[in-house]
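quick one before i forget lol
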Amino acid sequence: MHLFIMRHGEAELMANSDKARHLNANGREQSRLQGMWLKSTALEFDKVLVSPYTRALETFDEINQVFEQQLSDKLEVWEGITPYGDSGLVSSYVALLEKEGHRNLLLISHLPLVGDIVKELCGRNPASFYPATIVEVHLNNHRAEVKEIKYFSKTN
């Protein structure tokens, strides 16, 4: 399985609640550009797991626009991947999805959970999860390894 773990794009600092924080203009651009990179991998996602927080949903929306709305029917909004979700539970769910035959999965979440998920799966987290960072993890028979770390950059 190819698992792409993404932190949402850059968000506004102030809002009525953490859950309600929107992406700022830079965060929208980051998400769109990372969506272009994801699309260039030529993988078709079987499922996209997204936190219910506004900035994660808006990150998904930007990526889905790049994919010409083809990800809409793959979307699963899950309370389990909010900032302080349980990485063990996420890891178990990913393993279940792999067992069910899902081959390509995108997960959009938050710090600190994104780093915790990589550490849970791979035994270490080599990434600094700046906004819109994507870590590609390959899972194969309960073995996981980081294949690529894609930091946001306007030049690549």
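fyi The mean pLDDT is 94.
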